[in-house]
Amino acid sequence: MARILIVGSGVVGQATGKGFAAKGHSVSYVDINPQTIATLRAAGLTAMTAAEVRWDEVDIVMLAVSTPSVNGKIVLDYIESAAIDIGYGLAQTSSYITVVVRSTVPPTTTERRITPILERMSGKRAGIDFGVAMNPEFLRAVSSEQDFARPWITVIGTTDRFTAEILDLLYAPFGALIVRCTPTEAEMIKYVNNVYNAVKISYFNEVHAICQHLGIDSRLVSAAVARSAEGMWNPLYGTRGGVPYGGACLPKDTTAFMQFVREHGWEHRMLEAAIAVNEHLAARVPAAASPDQIEDRLAAARRRDEAAARGEVLAIEVGEQEQIVL
Ligand SMILES: NC(=O)c1ccc[n+]([C@@H]2O[C@H](COP(=O)([O-])OP(=O)(O)OC[C@H]3O[C@@H](n4cnc5c(N)ncnc54)[C@H](O)[C@@H]3O)[C@@H](O)[C@H]2O)c1
Description:
This protein is of the alpha/beta class. The protein has helices spanning 11-22, 34-42, 77-91, 109-122, 144-149, 161-171, 183-214, 218-228, 230-233, 250-263, 269-282, 294-309; strands at residues 3-7, 26-30, 46-48, 60-63, 69-70, 73-74, 98-101, 131-134, 153-157, 177-181, 315-317, 323-325.
């Protein structure tokens, strides 16, 4: 069983700590807020400031401090300050500690900002003297402990095999699909996850408004589409990227519905953006008539880009009836 130190003992930190404690690990908590420390202690948990940690007694650090946005820009001061404390801690022990970033941070933060701080403060090297991973959390605040206990996915971002194996063992008992990737991929997965959810909610808010204009029940429409649209129930539908939508229906129906909405003086900004994005991409890559053709078309576009980079003019077969000629 591992000795786990949670640094940043708020919603994510506590759900993480309680979840691992329930699996038999020894968990202690660090925070900068004295009230949080007092509350955790009153609940019978081990909580302290970073200065009080005995680093010889730590196997894994879970970094779950706040990363708020101010004026739209993420504030990394808290996580960097916590990384400085952990770096000092690493310097105080000869044990191998695995440092796991759980906070939501922009892609590249773990590799370009957190790891260098840990190395500078400790005088040690990541991947050799200590491990680093980015392991985003997908829980919702309203159901944090249940979500942590029953994850639907576990993403382990590390370039270091030993760290990956430690985290595989730690998370295996939770039974979720484990995705192994780099720290930057893990950070990207977390942002794309949240942005996708935000886009979906915004989309259906616009659907709701149009249904209200039409005097029809938006909950019926949305609930039916949640079952009718393949993009809803086939998780990989539309996710490959790099190829615009095509075929007999999507281009004509998106533009026709946009026109219908405009003629009534209503708004559908999500659809407007979707059409603009598709047209922009279609100017470069031919649309996919069916998802099966996507790989062929991606490969063709890649070959064309490589040829263009070499300054070559290239004709590429992309399908039975089409050719892209540069
Ligand atoms: N709340 C969620 O539903 C949720 C879900 C997934 C991911 N996240 C991400 O997880 C991270 C933590 O979110 P949260 O909701 O648990 O935040 P929170 O505000 O509830 O907790 C963060 C804790 O970190 C502490 N802290 C700040 N600086 C510190 C430092 N230098 N050393 C030690 N502790 C420090 C704060 O005092 C606070 O107790 C954020 O990056 C957030 O985006 C949150």
